């Protein structure tokens, strides 16, 4: 891999942007890195997906269901790309993302931990990412104060699957009930039915522009109906979570753990 381009791309955050995020649970920030860095990131991105890096350890899988489209993946995801490419933590994208996250969350950068994942919507058949709250995937024994930074390496439009948000949904007291995509507990992707899509605000972005969303904000991305892939690189930044005396129930996580256990014991019996 060629060396990381080093030119810095300084950003600032206005009080207006902080207030918009706190009120609405999302923010379209705009440009967050340089063209050179974007090109370099695209090479890394394509290598990770072509080689299906991390598949054996469960760090590469299809979020949209196992081989749902004629034997090919519809929503492949790479978790923790910085394990393979540690330089990803040195990028404008990562450093600016962390800086902006600290302003939006009102938490000093030193207290925030973060990492990345990548979701690819292949051209023409990339499946929708259904309505969900990110926190529904997370540890139920803690209260989370975090957000995601979402940057696309390609034009993200309504047709290719840009993010859409329900303004103010991050202020809900509870995590909404979720279920697994296709009601299959072995599909890692989650969906909630408690949403009014008429309230959705689509947020198209150009390559290298980013949106931010709170971990409880309801969001969605449509299928990719274009002839180009939609390559999203996402960073998740969290303040230290607060332990809860009574965990918030997340039965969908228990169902998934049970289904995986059953699958493993079946595989053992067959061996
Ligand atoms: O990229 C997508 O399709 C969905 C991304 C998402 O749900 C997230 O970043 O939380």
Explain this structure to me?
This protein has 271 residues and is α+β, with helices and mostly antiparallel strands. The chain has a single domain (15-270), classed as q2cbj1_9rhob like domain (Jelly Rolls, Sandwich). Helices cover 22% and strands 24% of the residues. The chain contains 4 helices and 15 strands. The strands form 4 sheets. Strands 1-12-7-14-4-3-2 form a 7-stranded antiparallel sheet. Strands 5-13-8-11 form a 4-stranded antiparallel sheet, with no helix packed on it. It starts with 14 loop residues before the first helix and ends with a helix. It binds 2-oxoglutaric acid. The site of 2-oxoglutaric acid has 10 residues, from β7, β13 and β14.
Q: In what range is the share of β-strand residues? A: 15-25%
Q: Tally the helices: what do you get?
A: 4
Distance between the termini: 40 Å
Average pLDDT rating: 94
Order of helices and strands: HEHEEHEEEEEEEEEEEEH
What's the CATH class, please? Mainly Beta
Largest sheet entry: 7 strands, antiparallel
Number of strands: 15
* Major beta sheet, strand line-up: 1-12-7-14-4-3-2
- Our count of domains comes out at 1
Percent of residues in helical segments? 10-25%
Please give the CATH architecture.
Answer: Sandwich
Oligomer state of the chains in this structure: single chain
- General shape: globular
- Low-pLDDT residue intervals, each spanning 5 or more residues: none
Radius of gyration, rounded? 18 Å
According to CATH, the fold-level topology is: Jelly Rolls
Ligand types: 2-oxoglutaric acid
Secondary structure category: alpha+beta
């Amino acid at each position: 891999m060629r060396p990381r381009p080093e030119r810095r791309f300084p950003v600032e955050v206005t009080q207006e942007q902080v207030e918009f995020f706190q009120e609405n649970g999302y923010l379209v920030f705009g440009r967050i890195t340089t063209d050179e860095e974007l090109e370099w990131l695209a090479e890394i991105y394509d290598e990770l997906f072509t080689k299906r890096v991390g598949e054996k350890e469960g760090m590469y899988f299809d979020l949209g269901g196992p081989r749902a489209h004629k034997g090919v993946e519809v929503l492949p995801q790479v978790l923790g790309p910085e394990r393979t490419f540690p330089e990803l933590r040195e990028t404008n994208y990562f450093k600016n993302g962390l800086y902006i996250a600290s302003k939006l969350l009102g938490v000093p950068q030193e207290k925030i931990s973060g990492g990345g994942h990548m979701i690819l919507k292949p051209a023409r058949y990339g499946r929708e990412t259904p309505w969900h709250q990110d926190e529904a995937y997370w540890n139920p024994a803690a209260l989370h104060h975090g957000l995601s930074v979402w940057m696309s390496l390609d034009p993200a439009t309504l047709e290719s699957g840009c993010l859409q948000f329900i303004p103010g949904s991050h202020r809900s007291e509870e995590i909404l009930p979720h279920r697994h995509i296709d009601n299959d507990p072995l599909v890692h992707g989650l969906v909630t039915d408690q949403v009014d899509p008429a309230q959705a605000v689509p947020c198209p972005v150009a390559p290298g522009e980013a949106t931010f969303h709170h971990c409880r904000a309801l969001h969605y991305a449509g299928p990719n109906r274009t002839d180009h892939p939609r390559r999203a690189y996402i960073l998740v930044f969290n303040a230290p979570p607060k332990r809860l005396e009574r965990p918030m129930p997340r039965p969908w996580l228990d169902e998934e753990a049970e289904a995986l256990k059953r699958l493993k014991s079946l595989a053992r019996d067959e061996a």
